[in-house]
Design goal:
With about 210 residues, this protein is α+β, with helices and mostly antiparallel strands. It has 3 helices and 12 strands, in the order ααββββββαββββββ. The longest helix is centred in the N-terminal third of the chain and has 18 residues. The chain is globular, with a radius of gyration of 18 Å. About 25% of the residues are buried. The N terminus is likely disordered.
Length: about 210
């Protein structure tokens, strides 16, 4: 469950965005600032941040994540993952297992099909939150995506993301973000240290 929800959150974060010429001035500003932050997180320079996910106050998980192009890595208390753009290596520290996946493994296709995010299917609105921008997204009527509402808090001065609140199906998921850094992310960060886990049970799900 935790793995699915984290995947959904970061899939949504990684969705592309752009500005529609027909939008209101407020919506254009909201999209423009949203895009700036998106580029800081998912641009070719790479980024890293720490996150704390709170799912309706029942399930909580914290970790650290790195991005660079199609590469991604994250660390939690139980799960670790390295994705080099071709293979995805999942480590379960409790079960002492390493599971290898292709990037296009059916588990990802299944999740993304249910939680796709199209930026043109939302209305954008920006508010002044003092030292932050508050950007609200509301899905248009009859949108098929299970993501209906979202709210992003972005630092005015640095444009760094501070939190993201998403309504998935019937529940709200809050992601608090800290220690954000954009740039200077080495490609070595995404190389799976296989020898460190050679005594774990290995499961190969690649085709």
């Amino acid at each position: 469950m935790k793995r699915l929800l984290l995947f959904v959150v970061f899939l949504w974060l990684a969705a592309p965005s752009w500005v529609n010429a027909d939008e209101t001035p407020n919506a254009k500003q909201a999209r423009r600032i949203f895009n700036q932050t998106y580029d800081m997180v998912f641009g070719p320079q790479g980024s890293t941040l720490q996150y704390h996910v709170n799912i309706i106050g029942v399930m909580k998980v914290s970790g650290k994540i790195w991005y660079k192009g199609k590469k991604k890595r994250f660390e939690e208390s139980r799960y670790l993952s390295w994705s080099d753009g071709v293979n995805d290596s999942w480590v379960d520290l409790k079960k002492k297992t390493v599971t290898l996946y292709d990037i296009a493994h059916p588990r990802k296709t299944k999740y993304s099909g249910n939680f796709t995010f199209n930026p043109n299917e939302f209305d954008y609105y920006i508010e002044d939150g003092g030292s932050d921008f508050i950007i609200t997204l509301n899905a248009h009527k009859n949108v098929k995506s299970n993501i209906k509402h979202a709210k992003a808090i972005i630092d005015k001065k640095t444009r760094a993301p501070k939190s993201l609140k998403i309504k998935l199906l019937w529940f709200w998921t809050t992601v608090k973000i800290s220690n954000f850094r954009s740039g200077n992310i080495s490609d070595d960060t995404f190389t799976f240290p296989s020898t460190k886990y050679k005594h774990f049970t290995w499961i190969d799900e690649r085709k």
